[in-house]
Design goal:
Elements lengths: L2 E3 L3 E2 L14 H9 L1 H10 L3 E2 H6 L5 E3 L4 H13 L3 H12 L6 H13 L6 H15 L8
Length: 143
């Protein structure tokens, strides 16, 4: 996840030096925003605003500049309250989305979903907490 201050700017400025973007800039950005925008930005060196970055999926949130770290810490706290094994599986499933086919990605996700370690107390607690939040009760009904 990428949080940006509202004054953040991004660019591929290498064209101004007569070079193409290095370190995978064209390849990674094209996979994120598409070939057409990448071509425009790589060939012009135009600055990309925080709002434009958000609009095209380069950022997940734009924050007031002076509060970016605070927003990031609040987001980290929200994530830290979630089930650690599920968070790990989500991260592993998402890390490879640009390197595998959809079919391979779905198999990886399925593997994580049905993994034996996923069927534990963490899952039971999550289901029970969600049920109780909706029904305002103290636990799952006896089956």
């Amino acid at each position: 996840m990428i949080l940006t201050g509202d004054n953040a700017q991004f660019a591929l400025p290498e064209i101004g030096l007569g070079m193409l973007p290095g370190a995978g800039g064209t390849q990674r950005l094209a996979r994120l925003v598409g070939q057409q925008l990448t071509m425009r930005w790589a060939m012009t060196g135009e600055m990309i605003s925080a709002q434009t970055a958000l609009q095209h999926g380069m950022s997940s949130q734009v924050c007031p500049t002076g509060l970016t770290v605070q927003y990031a810490l609040e987001l980290a706290e929200k994530i830290a309250k979630q089930a650690p094994l599920a968070i790990r599986a989500i991260k592993q499933s998402l890390k490879s989305i640009h390197e595998v086919t959809l079919s391979q990605g779905l198999k990886l996700e399925s593997m994580h979903f049905y993994k034996k370690e996923n069927q534990n107390l963490e899952v039971c607690n999550g289901i029970s907490n969600n049920y109780c939040r909706r029904k305002k009760c103290s636990g799952l009904p006896d089956l």
